[in-house]
Amino acid sequence: MPDVDRARAWLLTVDGAPQSYVDLDAPTHLEFEYTRRLGHVLDTLADPGRAVDVLHLGGGALTLPRYVAATRPGSHQDVVEADRGLLDLVAEHLPLPDGPDIALHTADARAWLEAAPADSADVLIADVFGGSRIPAHLTTLAYARAAERVLRPDGVYLANLADAAPFAFLRSQLATFAEVFGELALIAEPGVLRGRRFGNAVLIAAHRPVDTAALARLTAADAFPARVEHGAALREFTGAAAPVRDADAVASPEPPGGAFGIG
Question: Which residue range(s) make up the domain with 244?
Fold first, then answer.
């Protein structure tokens, strides 16, 4: 986990891929574009400053838990990370500040989700990668139903996905979550959606409308502007893709070399 620029700003890499960036002096600074997009959703899903209960699947360097603690004081957060060594490393080099209610758990994300209490989270954020790929068992209809069970009726599911044209994986995820949730939206750079390159896409799923107009304004103003797709356009993008069953699940595609970096 090498130093980046300053003694209190750090870049975490996993298997050579940049995974998290943390500035201990500025917990609201989100360096990676996909984390900024997740932050935009977090900022718009409830009144500013209102505490929420958040379940994070995937810990990384705890960038988003720090962000929620800073922007929504009093929030309770559970972080589930399968790699105990990673949690220990982060706790040693990037300790959480005193005060925030953040509980760290070592467990498989789906196993934790299936055992978690129903209606216990306002937000579920999935950012789980085995190396540079999303594990197959976190892509299925059974997994989506487990996520929906844990969320409260007005809760919101967020996921960091990654794909490239012809978008077989991304379309399958949209079809899967459309089976379970009534409202979907997708945030990604236009170049990614046009199939020009491999990249991240943030999936939003809920049983209530999300503020896509506010999200479109926020994401368009970023250094690397993104587009918010929803409604008929998103259904057209999904096409004839089918929901993923456990028996047919595969991990997300391997990114090409140099696909991920800061920004």
Answer: 32-248
